[in-house]
Write a structure and sequence with these properties.
The protein is α+β, with helices and mostly antiparallel strands. About 35% of the residues lie in helices and about 25% in strands. The chain has a 5-stranded antiparallel sheet with strand order 6-5-4-3-7, with helices on one face. A 4-stranded antiparallel sheet has the order 9-10-8-11. A two-stranded antiparallel sheet has the order 1-2. Helix 2 crosses helix 3. It is extended and about 80 Å long.
Length: about 325
């Protein structure tokens, strides 16, 4: 039997015991997990050896029922339930997929403190859970960027409404520029950390990539936020953008239609059947580069139906790409 199946079955066994108010018999557990009673006995013994507080007792009918006693981590003031602990460990790979952010060290320390509360055998069991679910991290900022002191000052500025002065390397202009900013929020998206700040010179909120901020200094002056920011700061964009949303319709060919139907690309999306087994996707999103690059990623299998202006932009991008190949 693959090792992962054993881990998943034992996790399900612990889950079943914790969910049972009056305990569960070995026969009932075997039926629930679709295994033999011998397998359940072996799993119970292995979990007891790992340090989980399992015990059996006889009910009024003389049947032996197994229970899981209380909270697993009594060393914490509030404690974790077993399901919470297992879910945390199972998601460890997902959390570590953001490695390279300035919070990676804190994440490692947090898991280290949690592990000290576990018995060695219990930790050995739980450490197998992340192997059941793997996670691939997307593109992210290079290790060491952004500098910890920059992030620390930005956090202080957002918490205490401190006016700041920032030196920033702009990719669009190719130059370095100094800004006076009112930092509103830090947001992690698509493998990078971003600052949303009101810029008095522009009288607008702008988004800055934190890894392109070379220095930040805080003034004694404080500010009062002029514009509210929602919980999902990039809700209107498929990427990192805070611009206004507008409707877009994209027709996908039959070859990729199953992939389009299988996912929620944006909360506002609507699907309808297209020609020749294709599908038409409509969304209310920013008409930004993130949207255009996503459309282009589908190659010849996607076509912008509306608006016409966006269709012309995508067409121009395709012509420019074809021109680079013809020049080569």
């Amino acid at each position: 039997m693959p090792r992962n199946q054993e881990v998943i079955r034992q996790w399900r066994l612990l889950h079943a015991l914790e969910s049972s108010r009056h305990g569960a018999t070995i026969t009932a557990l075997a039926d629930d997990l679709a295994v033999t009673t011998r397998t359940i006995r072996r799993d119970l013994a292995a979990l007891q050896e790992a340090g989980f507080p399992l015990f059996d007792e006889h009910d009024d009918d003389g049947r032996s029922r197994w229970r899981l006693e209380g909270q697993v981590l009594k060393g914490l003031e509030t404690g974790f339930t077993l399901r919470e602990l297992c879910a945390l460990y199972l998601s460890r790979n997902l959390l570590e997929a953001v490695a390279g952010t300035p919070f990676q060290r804190d994440l490692t320390l947090a898991f280290g403190r949690l592990e000290k509360l576990l018995t060695p055998r219990m930790r050995q069991f739980l450490d197998r859970l992340p192997a059941v679910l793997s996670a691939k991290s997307g593109p992210r900022a290079r290790a060491g960027d952004p500098a910890a002191d920059v992030v620390g000052r930005l956090l202080e500025a957002t918490l205490h409404y401190r006016v700041g002065t920032m030196r920033y390397h702009s990719v669009s202009s190719g130059g370095i520029k100094d800004y006076t900013i009112h930092p509103y929020r830090l947001a992690f998206a698509q493998g990078g950390l971003y600052l949303l700040a009101y810029v008095p010179a522009y009288k607008a909120i702008r988004t800055f990539a934190v890894d392109r901020i070379s220095s930040v200094s805080l003034e004694k002056e404080t500010f009062t936020p002029k514009q509210p920011i929602g919980e999902d700061v990039f809700a209107n964009s498929l990427g990192v953008n805070t611009g206004p949303a507008a409707k877009v319709e994209i027709e996908f060919a039959a070859r990729v239609a199953p992939y389009v139907r299988a996912r929620v690309w944006h909360a506002s999306q609507q699907l309808r059947e297209g020609d020749e087994d294709g599908v038409v996707l409509s969304m209310n999103v920013c008409h930004d580069w993130a949207l255009r690059s996503w459309i282009l990623s589908w190659g010849p299998f996607a076509r912008v139906v509306a608006p016409r202006g966006l269709a012309k932009e995508v067409e121009s991008d395709l012509e420019a790409a074809a021109g680079r190949y013809s020049q080569a």
